[in-house]
Write a structure and sequence with these properties.
The chain is α+β, with helices and mostly antiparallel strands and 588 residues long. The chain has 17 helices and 21 strands. Strands 9, 10, 11, 12, 13, 14 and 15 form a seven-stranded mixed β-sheet that branches. Helix 10 links the parallel strand 11 and strand 12. The chain binds adenosine-5'-diphosphate and magnesium ion. The site of adenosine-5'-diphosphate has 24 residues, from helix 4, helix 6 and helix 14.
């Protein structure tokens, strides 16, 4: 393609605009793009802000088909809300990534990311370039994590003795902000026990980890080994830990025993049925005896399957596939309890809990494949019949059965239990804890402000703003508890400065987080004695994820959006020339 030269009026290309982007594509550039993104991100932070902390409010979310969710969990709120704007979607990603990594701190992360962006907006309006801000933020976030580590306490024996108490506190703190806070003490016991049961002493994995991490981690926990089942009915107090697996399935045949003590369990990943051939086969029968023989042969095959199970010594059969009526009959005659069509994931858990090996072929089943449990029993849970395999010796998979007044309660309880499981896991894997109630954030902010003085040029201003953004956490906790934000800030800064002064500017001795928000009494106070503890892993993740997202959003100066297939009427607006500064209507 040849480009028109200046003054070359004869060239037809000069009049024809060059379309680089597909028709209907919209673009917003520079300031406009930035402003839109910043606004969207701030709106998302605003949305979850009032949910932060024990005095935070819950959100009632109604889906397009009318399903109601009541929650206080940042990740859940954002997951349920239908979000359009691309920058807003990135904020949702923050919550998601924090949820996946550490399980708690999702609201904090979104609030912090929003605050970072808001502070950056002020700087941008004062002509500080976003790149400089991002650089300052990056440096400040690294420093912040250093200060956090100073303020944290190491647990020497996280799984035992006195530190066990700390695990309970950690679990309880994570549930303090939820609907279930009233029952958090009992739930915490269940959660800690469950996590300790499935914890495995860590096998060394040397690659890709720093030496420091290797020395710190002692356990490996696969939270999938904790099966959380829920059923509305009863009350939260009826929630129980089961040393085994709860199956939301019933015993397959009415004649089978409903309760077997000293269960010897066979796990089958093979049908107890005569498999139909892939091709349609035709059998010609000319005499009634042949029909009889045919049926008898089927019968014989099914009986021989049951005989294998009996020979192996099993009295409970848990089958991933189907069980034929005739096989059911023979099983029940042999006094064997059977459940069919169990989920594959449950089969894995059953194997871990009972010590059984899953047999892929009935012919291979032997006594050594069987697992054991004190009790296998079908019980009525509200209107359903569920099978409980419980009392497993040293189970590496356990269940938590959540009960509660209504479906919404058990749903939110399940989310809170998930958070609690995750924080206990966090601490076992990275045994450092830190005070809650906004105290670490207040301390880190003060030390960051101090430190930012050592930076040169405009990064200094950015780092200073980072410190202010971190302070948003205690301030928001206070605001949600009905305190005045400005008074709180002034008081908090004074108290923290005092404590830093006393400890020699944080140089002579390591400063522990102390002053934060006592949300119950609604005042700035020494919260270190209040038994509010959180995993250091959560705090670190909050800072990392929030900084990352804020930086990413701030770096964008061009949003190019492909036309949406359903909406029309944008035709002609596309193209490089047409977009500049003209849009910003991404679902605002
Ligand atoms: P997130 O999704 O970020 O975990 P939460 O709503 O669970 O949000 O609130 C967490 C914040 O609440 C943390 O900063 C934590 O320290 C604080 N918090 C928890 N319990 C208390 C308490 N009893 N007093 C003061 N602050 C608390
Ligand atoms: Mg929380």
């Amino acid at each position: 393609m040849s480009f028109p030269r200046e003054g070359d009026l004869s060239s037809p290309q000069q009049q024809v605009p060059i379309f680089v982007l597909k028709e209907g594509t919209t673009e917003s550039k520079g300031r406009q793009a930035q402003r839109n993104n910043i606004t969207a991100a701030k709106l998302i932070a605003e949305l979850v802000k009032s949910a932060l902390g024990p005095r935070g409010m819950d959100k009632m979310l109604v889906s397009s088909i009318g399903d109601v969710t009541i929650t206080n969990d940042g990740a859940t709120i954002l997951k349920e809300v239908d979000i359009e704007h691309p920058a807003a979607k990135m904020m949702v990603e923050v919550a998601k990534s924090v949820d996946n990594e550490v399980g708690d701190g999702t609201t904090s992360a979104v609030v912090l990311a929003g605050a970072l962006i808001e502070k950056a907006e002020e700087l941008i309006s004062k002509q500080v370039h976003p790149t400089v801000i991002v650089e300052g933020y990056q440096m400040a976030s690294e420093k912040a994590i250093e200060f956090l580590r100073d303020a944290a306490t190491k647990l020497n024996d996280p799984a035992g003795g006195k530190d066990n108490e700390t695990l309970l506190t950690i679990a309880q703190t994570s549930m303090a902000s939820k609907l279930v806070s009233g029952e958090s003490a009992d739930l915490a016991k269940i959660v800690v026990q469950a996590v300790l049961d499935v914890a495995e002493e860590r096998i060394d994995e040397r690659e890709g980890e720093t030496r420091q991490q290797q020395q710190q981690k002692k356990f490996r926990i696969d939270v999938d080994n904790i099966k959380v089942e829920k059923k509305a009915g009863g009350s939260l107090n009826d929630t129980q830990l089961i040393y085994g697996i709860v199956l939301d399935k019933e015993v397959v045949h009415g004649g089978m025993p409903k309760r077997i003590q000293g269960a010897k369990i066979a796990l089958l990943n093979a049908p107890m049925e005569i498999e139909k051939t892939e091709m349609s086969a035709e059998i010609r029968i000319s005499e009634p005896q042949q029909m009889q023989m045919f049926l008898e042969e089927e019968n014989r095959m099914l009986k021989s399957m049951v005989d294998k199970v009996v020979a192996a010594g099993a009295n409970v059969v848990l089958c991933q596939k189907g069980i034929d009526d005739i096989a059911q009959h023979y099983l029940s005659k042999a006094g064997i309890m059977a459940v069919r069509r169990i989920k594959e994931s449950d089969m894995f858990k059953l194997a871990k809990a009972t010590g059984a090996r899953v047999a892929n072929n009935i012919d291979e089943l032997t006594a050594s494949d069987l697992g054991s449990a004190d009790l296998a029993e079908e019980r009525k849970v509200e209107t359903d019949k569920w099978v409980f395999i419980e009392g497993c010796k040293n189970p590496k998979a356990v269940s938590i059965l959540i009960r509660g007044g209504s479906q919404r309660v058990v749903d939110e309880a399940e989310r809170s239990v998930h958070d609690a499981i995750m924080v206990v896991k966090d601490v076992l894997e990275y045994p450092y804890v830190i005070a809650g109630g906004g105290a670490p954030e207040a301390l880190v902010a003060a030390r960051l402000r101090d430190w930012s003085g050592s930076l040169s040029g405009r990064t200094q201003i950015a780092a200073y703003r980072f410190a202010e953004a971190i302070e948003t956490i205690p301030i928001t906790l206070a605001e949600n508890a009905g305190m005045d934000p400005l008074d709180t800030q002034v008081q908090l800064r004074a108290r923290v400065a005092e404590s830093l002064e006393r400890s020699g500017q944080g140089r002579a001795e390591i400063v522990k987080a102390k002053y934060g928000i006592n949300v119950i009494e609604g005042k700035v106070a020494d919260v270190s004695k209040q038994n509010i503890f959180e995993p250091l892993a959560v705090k670190e993740q909050v800072i990392n994820s929030a900084t990352e997202a804020a930086s990413m959003i701030l770096r964008i100066d061009d949003v190019i959006a492909a036309s949406k297939p359903k909406s029309e009427g944008h035709a002609g607006q596309g193209g490089m020339g047409a977009g500049g500064g003209e849009m910003g209507d991404f679902g605002e």
